[in-house]
Amino acid sequence: MRKQKGFSLIELLIVVAIILIIAAIAIPNLMHAKIAANEASAVQSIKAINAVEITYSAAYPTVGYAPALSNLGGMSPCTPSSNNACLIGSDLASGAKSGYLFTAVGSGGPPASQYYATAVPATVNRTGVRSFCSFEDALIRVQPTGAGIPSEAACQALLPLSQ
To answer: 3-state DSSP call for residue 11?
Structure first.
């Protein structure tokens, strides 16, 4: 009998089938991990916005809270002003980061005595499942469906995020 070199077609098909089964198990878990990471990043970004809103209102008392999220950032090299305060990175100031869309709006005044910030998934159930918001009390609230949060009153009606 001749000695066989290489693998038979059956052996190769079995190996491919095993690899496909492992991939079918791993890919959904990878998607859940990415969503969880995006949500954690969104919560940290809302915390950062809360902190810099306070800094902004102290630095520019005649303006109060920033009128828009873009006022909190600025492109490098950045010279601080009320239009570009250089307090957050340009990625967050642009309104999109880690699969979430961010807004921060100052209101009341002048000077603006209120603000609210939101983080909404760019694509619900793909980049994130939940939406987040906060206002002057700095508590982060969660909207479990991932829907938009249209106003500060809508944010106030939501339950705080348990951490």
So the answer is: helix
Q: Is the peptide bond before 77 cis (omega within 30 degrees of 0)?
A: yes
pLDDT of residue 23: 86
The answer to whether residue 162 sits within a structural domain is: no
Residue 64, token pair as written in the block: 């109060």
Q: How far lies 23's CA from each of 18, 27, 31, in Å?
A: 9, 6, 12
Max CA distance (Å), the chain: 94
Structural domain count of the chain: 1
Give the residue from 89, 99, 138, 91 showing the smallest Cα distance to 119: 99
Q: In terms of residue numbers, what domain contains 141?
A: 9-156
Residues 6+ apart with CB under 8 A from 34: 99
- Band the pLDDT of 1: cuts 50, 70, 90: low
Quick count: other Cβ atoms within 10 Å of Cβ 65? 26
Q: Is residue 139 part of a domain?
A: yes
54 located within any domain:
yes
Query: Do the domain assignments include residue 127?
Result: yes
